[in-house]
Amino acid sequence: VQVNLVGGYYDAGDNVKFGWTISYTTSLLSWAAIEYRQQITSAGEIEHLRQAIRWATDFLLRSHTSSTTFYTQVGDGNKDHSCWERPEDMDTPRTLYKITSQNPGSEAAGDAAAALAAASMVFEHVDAAYSSKLLQHAKSVINLINHNTNYFLIIVKKPSCPFYCSYSGYQDELLWGATWLYEATGDKKYHGYLTSNQGWSGSVSEFSWDNKLAGVQTLLAKVTL
C-alpha cells in the first residue's frame, strides 16, 4: 500500500509490530520521563530515554496516515510468532492491519492517543514543534473510535482483533487515552468524559498492557487530591 512504517519496536523475539503494545510501552516510558525527569537527567540518561520514546512515536505518527486511518499491525502475528529470526533474515509476510472511521478499534486508538499525548509532554520544552505535532495526532487518532460524532467518544465500537485481544474490555483504554489528553491539555472536556464514565473504573489487581485502570487511578488521584 506504499506506506512508510519504518521504526517502532518488534514484539518479543520476532519481527511483527503491534501498534497497541508499542503504544502502551511508549506511554510508560513517557510517564517515567515526566515523573522522574530530574533523577534520570542526573544519571545522564534523559536524552537516551527521549530517543527511545521518539523511535516509537515517529512510528505511531507514520501509522496515522490520515484523520480516518491508523495502521495498528505490521506482519502476520501467528506466522511471525512461530519463527524467531534476525530482522535481516525475515521472510514472513508484512501484512498490514488498520482501523478506520468505518472499522474503529477502541483499544488501539485509546492507547495511541495516550502514548502521543504523554510523549508530547516529554518534548514540550525541548522540541515544541514536535510536541505540538504529537498532541495534534493524539487528538485526531482518538476520534477513530467514532469519527462521525462531534462529541468526544460518545459511541464505542469494538471489532474483532487480529492478534492481541483485550480481555479486560475497551473501557480502560478509553479512560487511559482521555486521562493523558487531560494531563497534556487541561481541556475540561476530557475531564468531563472521565467523570461521566467513572463507573467503568474499579478495584484491579494489576497494571498491564491489557488493563490500565490502575494507571488511570494513579494519575487522576494526583490531579484531584
Automatic annotation (TrEMBL):
A GO molecular function held by the record: cellulase activity
Enzyme class: hydrolase
Domain Glycoside hydrolase family: 2-223
Example of a GO biological process term: cellulose catabolic process
Species of origin: Linum tenue
Keyword field contains Lipid biosynthesis: no
Catalytic activity of the protein: Endohydrolysis of (1->4)-beta-D-glucosidic linkages in cellulose, lichenin and cereal beta-D-glucans
Name the UniProt record assigns to this protein: cellulase
Family statement drawn from the similarity comment of this UniProt entry: Belongs to the glycosyl hydrolase 9 (cellulase E) family.
Enzyme Commission code: 3.2.1.4
Keyword annotations of the record: Carbohydrate metabolism, Cellulose degradation, Glycosidase, Hydrolase, Polysaccharide degradation
KW Hydrolase (keyword) present: yes
A Pfam family of this chain: Glyco_hydro_9
